[in-house]
Amino acid sequence: xxxxxxxxxxxxxxxxxxxxxxxxxxxxxxxxxxxxxxxxxxxxxxxxxxxxxxxxxxxxxxxxxxxxxxxxxxxxxxxxxxxxxxxxxxxxxxxxxxxxxxxxxxxxxxxxxxxxxxxxxxxxxxxxxxxxxxxxxxxxxxxxxxxxxxxxxxxxxxxxxxxxxxxxxxxxxxxxxxxxxxxxxxxxxxxxxxxxxxxxxxxxxxxxxxxxxxxxxxxxxxxxxxxxxxxxxxxxxxxxxxxxxxxxxxxxxxxxxxxxxxxxxxxxxxxxxxxxxxxxxxxxxxxxxxxxxxxxxxxxxxxxxxxxxxxxxxxxxxxxxxxxxxxxxxxxxxxxxxxxxxxxxxxxxxxxxxxxxxxxxxxxxxxxxxxxxxxxxxxxxxxxxxxxxxxxxxxxxxxxxxxxxxxxxxxxxxxxxxxxxxxxxxxxxx
Length: 430
Fold this sequence. Notes:
The longest helix has 20 residues, at 333-352. This protein has an eight-stranded mixed β-sheet, sandwiched between helices. A four-stranded antiparallel β-sheet has the order 5-4-9-6. Strands 2-3 form a two-stranded antiparallel sheet. The chain has helices at 5-15, 25-38, 100-103, 122-125, 140-143, 195-209, 227-243, 270-281, 298-301, 333-352, 379-392, 399-406, 410-422; strands spanning 43-48, 52-53, 56-57, 61-70, 76-79, 94-98, 107-108, 136-137, 151-160, 163-171, 178-184, 217-223, 244-250, 258-262, 285-288, 310-316, 356-358, 426-428. By secondary structure, the chain is α/β, with parallel strands linked by helices.
């Protein structure tokens, strides 16, 4: 049912080494493959180079042609062909001979993982560095072996006006109220970072698309980190504010140490209630504050400026984070499946949740409908049912709210409520 995990992993293999930066000709290839794999129509939101999106300026296209570092003997020490992290995205083009002392300030390395390239995002996102300087990345073990030089460095990049792309897939429901799934497609040469969230929501949307009826609408946005969300909201904030129940962002879900569901900014939204229900249902998921773990586009959507409730599903920490060891081989299919199960549980609860009110003006005769539980022999069930019937099901609280007040799972309460509804004892409140 829906996309299988093996197919999603193959999708990652085909695309993860592409030039996945803010504006790049490779991004259109990812969109085409995603649309073909997902078998759902993708709307493309286009933001032109130079466009000012709420202070965020869309950069030109940055397409790398060739890049390498050579030693004095003419041998290649490292290159873009070896790994796309070798060049820091949005480095300015350069061809120069220089000494070791002149080269070192331009080298980024990751001390945590000395045998891997590290990802230096700063040239792409820092307004004071973008296309104004250049940088390369090398494994620390390679840096330690560098001699006095001289060295020869080439970064051949085609820089021209282009368009930042944001993908938008919508599954309409009976209600226009929508839940938005958000993932990134950036981070060249990495899979668990960014791409794993993309894979997760491709699977979720694939399964939801096969359902005959949806109560609510589901939207899947995939975009470059941070600037993509800021740009999208600069155009569509009011519509999103009017229709969205909230957003779920995800990345880092196919490898890592601990499962986290990050709370929204306030920690008290309906999305937070869904997160608590998932944590009750699945073992070993920690609740984490808004500013914790790996922070990303949920901060943009749920900022004090935007105020779109947002949570995030992830595993933290991830040792290979921002390094060239973040490869498809490290994907744990069981983790991908578990993330899918967690998100789908929240979706299913939202779809089933409802406010109900009693039809009669006095509590109903439970034994007549075989809904009574004995207070001696079925004490736990007795207390739950009487709390619901006499106190909590008041025509204002939803089933999920009642379940969380009782400290029990949603389905436990919903099963009892559905039995009452079948007997005509309660009615839905619009």
